[in-house]
Automatic annotation (TrEMBL), chain A:
It comes from the Bacteria. Keywords: Membrane, Transmembrane, Transmembrane helix. The keyword Nucleotide-binding does not apply. Coiled coil: none annotated. The keyword Transmembrane helix applies. This is Fenitrothion hydrolase. It comes from Nocardioides silvaticus. The chain crosses the membrane at residues 20-41, 70-88, 100-121, 160-179, 191-212, 255-273, 293-312, 332-353, 391-412, 424-447.
Automatic annotation (TrEMBL), chain B:
It comes from Nocardioides silvaticus. Residues 30-63 have a biased composition (Low complexity). Residues 20-72 are annotated as: Disordered. This is Uncharacterized protein. Keywords: Signal. Residues 1-21 form the signal peptide.
Length: 449, 152
């Protein structure tokens, strides 16, 4: 078996960013946000079903039509079927495309695709397709598209469960990629995906496909990021175009949403920190079990993000008529999504572009037999991004700054709906400071710790 | 005027935090020389490797200006140095001087990846890195990170 840890995939990391650049970026982000917040933005804009541009019916018919839906589903299923080949018969080393497909194409790739097209993974999710086919086979009415499953013989999906299963699934995946020593061991990765499929199947048996919408880590992640795309639906369910921030405000504030965003944000922070010289030296000069240490540290960071966010969003006065205090965190949690996207871009852009190309090369030879199925085996990786570090650095700072500015705007806009007028400024203080904290942790980690 | 005070508080925090991270930044550079193997009971400590700093100003030996080099010492599971940092220019030749009691391989996670093979005893190897980036170099068998090359 191979011994390279998963974040060693794809070769060199990007160079650390010069401190002054990051500080400039962070300061700009905060200054702009505060100015916008306190001076200009006095009315909630995004929590209304307005400012929608109806997609012209002929186009909507194609986009919403059965032909495209079936084609995308078939594509997803076909690709899964193909991936079983390298997963079962391929070599157990880094020439196997399974790793690149899982860590680069699927995990990182779903971010830009969802940003462009909305909940893209849902449209191709082969597990969902298989379970919906099973629904048909056993003659069960499939669960409702977006709300509770109400098919026959199904339990309604309990509201308290919300996104909690997805947060577990997401944790399991980031653990596999970033902590597990076997993240690049084919047997172990296969086992992980088998367990994932089993979890989807069991949940489906109880709750129907409503389970997939809230438990499938990839689909939930894609759905959250997809809320930063312009694609949405109006109250009548018709396809509309809206501004990304308006779309973001439409994330359904279910239980467990804070856990999901905490896992996504915390694991990215862990990834930066765990490749820092300080951490590597510390680990190597101690005889602690690395897996246990890594698991503990990642959990700790996630819990800290979750607790600081929860506490900060609850630290406000609430009127007797207002939103109950315990509802506040999940109603504000959507504001973390653009921050997550910013960090994902900052951390994984070169990985996606360059290891993504590597994967394209490898996928032509799924069995490790020297085949060139798609004619991509002889391509060479274009390292343009890595060869232009200042471009990468600028994109990183821009991504993080944009993410934070959007996050602060989203949180402020929601606060205008949630908080009574007299609590408005003081009530947002704690959350703003939590976000300042996240910015600085993020920028500090980008320096290269 | 609450808002003005708010902005002031926020900016102060910003400055305070950035000052912290700045000083941390410096302090991480300091322990470079003291990175050592888990314990050095008896056997030669790895620190005596002539600190491979990129500045090649003072070289009292007769040899012509020596380029960057890294001394690696491997005794079974014990690998030194502990994540030595080294600045390297693109396409600059880096010399590995490896002393090992077993054959093995260093994985250089550059783009593209490279491998430095070594045998029992002393091995000298040269390599260059053609793509900028922060490049981890690890001993394949123990997965120990011996060096992090900052290639610019």
């Amino acid at each position: 078996m191979t011994n390279i840890s998963a974040h060693g995939l794809g070769g060199a990391d990007d160079l650390p960013i010069p401190a002054n650049l990051a500080i400039a970026g962070g300061t700009a982000a905060l200054t702009i946000s505060f100015a916008v917040l306190l001076l200009a933005w006095r009315k909630a804009r995004f929590d209304t079903p307005s400012h929608e541009l109806l997609v012209p019916p002929p186009i909507a018919r194609v986009l919403d039509g059965p032909a495209l839906k079936i084609a995308l589903r078939a594509l997803g299923l076909l690709f899964l079927g193909f991936m079983l080949w390298p997963a079962v018969l391929g070599p157990n080393d880094l020439t196997n495309p399974v790793f690149g497909v899982a860590y680069a194409w699927l995990w990182v790739g779903l971010v830009p695709v969802s940003l462009l097209f909305g909940s893209a993974y849902r449209a191709v999710n082969p597990v969902r397709t298989l379970l919906e086919l099973l629904d048909k086979a056993v003659g069960r009415t499939p669960g409702d598209r977006h709300s509770d499953g109400r098919g026959e013989g199904l339990r309604p999906y309990p509201p308290w469960l919300g996104y909690w299963p997805a947060s577990l699934g997401l944790f399991a995946f980031v653990w596999l990629e970033l902590v597990s020593p076997d993240g690049t061991d084919l047997d172990f990765v296969r086992l992980w995906f088998a367990l994932y499929a089993a979890a989807m199947l069991v949940g489906w048996a109880v709750f129907g496909t409503a389970w997939v919408s809230r438990a499938d880590p990839f689909e939930v992640y894609s759905t959250l990021v997809g809320h930063l795309s312009p694609w949405s639906r109006n109250t009548a369910g018709r396809l509309v175009l809206v501004s990304p921030l308006r779309n973001l405000a439409r994330i359904s504030p279910e239980a467990g949403l804070v856990a999901v965003v905490a896992v996504l944000l915390g694991s990215t922070a862990y990834d930066s920190w765990s490749s820092s010289v300080t951490w590597i030296r510390f680990v190597q000069s101690n005889s602690i079990d690395l897996t246990r240490l890594g698991t503990g540290l990642m959990l700790l960071i996630i819990v800290i993000v979750g607790i600081t966010f929860t506490a900060a969003s609850m630290a406000t006065g609430v009127g007797p008529q207002g939103t109950p205090r315990r509802e506040l965190p999940r109603r504000l949690a959507h504001s973390i999504v653009p921050i997550i996207v910013g960090y994902m871009i900052a951390h994984y852009l070169t990985f996606l572009v360059e290891y993504g190309q590597q994967t394209l090369i490898l996928i032509s030879d799924p069995g490790g037999t020297g085949a060139n199925l798609f004619g991509t085996a002889d391509l060479e990786i274009n390292y343009w991004l890595s060869q232009h570090p200042s471009v990468v650095a600028s994109i990183k700072v821009l991504a993080i700054v944009t993410g934070h500015v959007l996050g602060v705007i989203a949180a402020h806009d929601r606060s205008l709906t949630l908080l009574a007028r007299r609590h408005l400024i003081i009530g947002q203080l704690a959350l703003l400071f939590a976000m300042v904290g996240y910015t600085f942790m993020g920028l500090y980690l980008l320096f290269g710790a | 005027m609450r808002s003005v005070r708010l902005i002031a508080v926020a900016l102060t925090t910003v400055l305070a935090l950035s000052a912290c991270s700045g000083s941390n930044d410096e302090s991480t550079d300091a322990p470079e020389a003291t990175a050592a193997a888990p314990d050095d009971s008896g056997s030669a400590p790895p620190e005596e490797s002539p600190s491979t700093s990129p500045t090649q100003s003072v070289s009292p030996t007769e040899e012509a200006p020596a380029g960057p080099s890294i001394e690696v010492r491997i005794e079974g599971d014990r690998v030194a140095p502990n994540a030595e940092e080294l600045a390297l220019a693109v396409n600059e030749t880096l010399v590995w001087n490896i002393t090992s009691d077993r054959a093995g391989e260093l994985h250089v996670h550059s783009k593209p990846e490279q491998y430095v093979e070594f045998g029992e005893g002393e091995t000298r190897a040269e390599m260059t890195v053609e793509t900028p980036g922060s490049v981890e170099v690890e001993d394949h068998e123990t997965r120990a990170v011996v060096a992090i090359l900052e290639v610019r």
